[in-house]
Every structure is written in structure tokens, then in C-alpha cells.
Amino acid sequence: MTTTKWELLDQAYATLREAVAGVPVDGWGRATPCARWNVTQLLQHAAGDQLAYAARLTGGPGPTEDPFVPSGTLAGPPVDLLEPALAAAAEAFAGVAPGDPEVAVPLPPFSVPAETAVGAAALDAAVHAWDIAVATGRPPGLTDALAAALRPAADALVEPLRGFAYGPALPLAPGADHGAAARLLAFLGRDPGWAAPAV
Description:
This is TIGR03086 family metal-binding protein. It holds the Pfam family MDMPI_N. Residues 10-133 form the Mycothiol-dependent maleylpyruvate isomerase metal-binding domain. It comes from Streptomyces virginiae (Streptomyces cinnamonensis). The chain is mostly helical. The chain has a single domain, classed as dinb family like domain (Four Helix Bundle (Hemerythrin (Met), subunit A), Up-down Bundle). The chain has six helices and two strands, in the order H-H-H-E-E-H-H-H. The chain has a two-stranded antiparallel sheet with strand order 1-2. Helix 1 (7-21) runs antiparallel to helix 3, helix 2 runs parallel beside helix 3 and helix 2 runs antiparallel to helix 4 (114-135). The chain starts with 6 loop residues before the first helix and ends in a 12-residue tail after the last helix.
């Protein structure tokens, strides 16, 4: 398994791998917190996003379909889609130097400091891992520690992408003790208490 040499991104990729590995055989058509997509489509989107990061960094091939219009049909086992995407992104990010002020990313503003680029790719992977985990009734892998580490990238990048990549921020119930994961999810437009419909 290729590592990125960036601990945050490696952790996010491990979280996504775990979520995908935990999907039951009958889970791929289940609803997700991304209302337009089922679990299969969400996997296609998450894998496509990571390929898009790799392509921007290396000039290599990007996703074969639009990550924002996933077909819902896999050509083979889910791992055969996910692993090449994560390997390509990991190899690409392994070449990103800490402190580089201009690193290419696939969404506006298209060039950001290295730590923000890494955080953006990690945010994408970790939050979609949460989506897949909760859609299939599994424990979410998005810990408060991971969420806190991802928050700077979210603060830097999310607002210009509202209505496209992210929904409106959601309010949290007043008076409750909300952890970093819940605060991050709500900021991204996700309900931290979302639960899969009964099957």
C-alpha cells in the first residue's frame, strides 16, 4: 500500500478503506447522507475525487466519469475502484513538499499551500468515509481528533464551494456538548445525527 508521507492523509485514507471494507453485500444500494446518492455512487464519487487530486498534481489521468454524476454501476469489486485511486493520490501527494506555497488542487481556488491541499484531500476522504459508515450502520471513523485536524482545510476552502460541493452549514442544538466531529459535519452541511433508514 502506497503511503503519502503525510500522516493526516494516510489516516483519512485508512478511514475510507475501513468504511468501504465494512459495507455488507446488500449495502451498496442503501441511502446515504448525500441524499442524491446511494453507497455505490458515493464510493464512485470519493474515488473519483482522489483521482482528480492525483491528476492535478501529476498531469496523469483523472477519473473516467464525472465524480459529481456517479453512475451507480461498478465494473468490478469495490476495492478495484478504490485502491487504484488511493494509490495514485498517495503517490502524487508523496511528492508534495511541506511548505510549498503553490500546490494544484481540482477545485477553486485551484492552487493552495501544501498543508491546505493535503487537508482538502484528507477532508474529502474522511467525510465520505463517515457517509459510507453511517449509511451502512457501522461506527463512524471520523474521530474528534481527526476532525480537528481537518478543520483548518475546511475553514479555508468550504465557503466558496457551498451549493456545489457542500450544503449550507447546519445549526447544532444549543446547550449540547458537541465534539469536533459533530461541529465539522454540521459546518459541511451534514447532520451529525443522521442514521440510515431501517432496512
